[in-house]
Specification:
The protein is α/β, with parallel strands linked by helices. The protein contains 14 helices and 14 strands. The strands form three sheets. Strands 5, 6, 7, 10, 11, 12, 13 and 14 form an eight-stranded mixed beta sheet that branches. Strands 1-2-3 form a three-stranded antiparallel beta sheet. A three-stranded mixed beta sheet has the order 4-8-9, with helices on one face. A hairpin with a 2-residue loop joins strand 1 and strand 2. The model has no long low-confidence stretch (mean pLDDT about 95).
Length: about 425
Amino acid sequence: MTEQANNLKSYPALRNIQYSPIKQGEEHYIVLWDPSGLSAEKLIIPLNLFYLFQFLDGEHSPEQIGVEYLKKYGEFLMPDKLDRLIADLDEKLFLEGERYEAVKAQAVKAYRDAPTRKPRFDGKSYEAEPQKLREQVAGFFSSKEGPGPDPSEHQGKAVKGLVAPNYEVNVAGPIYAWAYKELREAEAPDVYILLGTAHAGLAKPVAVTDKDFESPLGVVPVNRPIMEHLRSKGGDEWFADELRHETEHSIEFQLPFLQETVGARQSISIIPVLSLFPPGCVIDPALKDVTDQVERFVTTLKDAIAASGQRVCFLASANLAHIGLRYGDDKAPTDFSFHRCMQTDLEMLKHVENVDAQGFAEFLLKEQDRRHVLGFSAIYLLLRLIEAEKGEVLRYDREIVDQFNSTITYASAAFF
């Protein structure tokens, strides 16, 4: 056993696990799961045990964690109970360590050996049968929340970029349709740079994959000239975390819309990019490594596009605010707090419409992550990469996601 493995055994470290409050009768619990999809397990625990998870940081031993429990609750936590909890977390792959690394290595090999990136959410978040999926997408355009049949005022123009939600297609489909209507009626480009949000986290700020993406409507190939330039100029840096693409929904949710609005009339290709980095990278010296990596990626991708001579459209797959207990707030949203969140969202989106990447980042920095805008990195990359004069927010909406009124907001926008 290596020294690092020994240390993780003595000082357990929780992976990037997501959690959500649930209520059963009068009792409150926390449910935990792995957003990367590497583990399909879930764990439901009482609030008193969840308090201890902040100390599963690789710096506290089980004995020290027990002391923290005593400080908080004034009673001893039996060592065997804590040992069972830690063993259960390890069994479910929720902890860093040898078991997790071995399973991850197998998953990486299987992903890289696969001929395509298979759909993961068909039949769950959208229709799996091709004809039903086509009808579903068409229904989003014609629904009362959708854009309707009237021509866009931008019809025939070259769309340089789009922002679309990455929330459940079954629910937010009409909001996606507002963005894709612009694309359907536009002068279509050759390549689509899909800038997705990595909900499960990334080791580096950006993760590219060279896998063709499969959907119920067929295979969407990656653009080989741009992809080969990225790999030749960036080495493996941009591909080190490509396994995240296997279970991430952010890019997959865009494909049926892209295939139906453009792919039905011409061949299309994509560059699939996942990203996750904080607004602080634009000014914080402590984040210089992240800043440098982002800058290298922006420069390399711009060079790759220029060298290919192809017309591109940038598409940011990104939700906006995440408010409520599910996202770490100390109380549930009210109608007033949502209205205030909406006003703040729309103020923030003015920077997006003005193609002002710096202003967008600084706006969120002033907020200090109070609204948990998870889609920052994808939208920021779009604003840095795009050559457009102006954007326009087309539609804005929200969805309540649990029994505690936790809420996600999202919007569609187009750039010309």
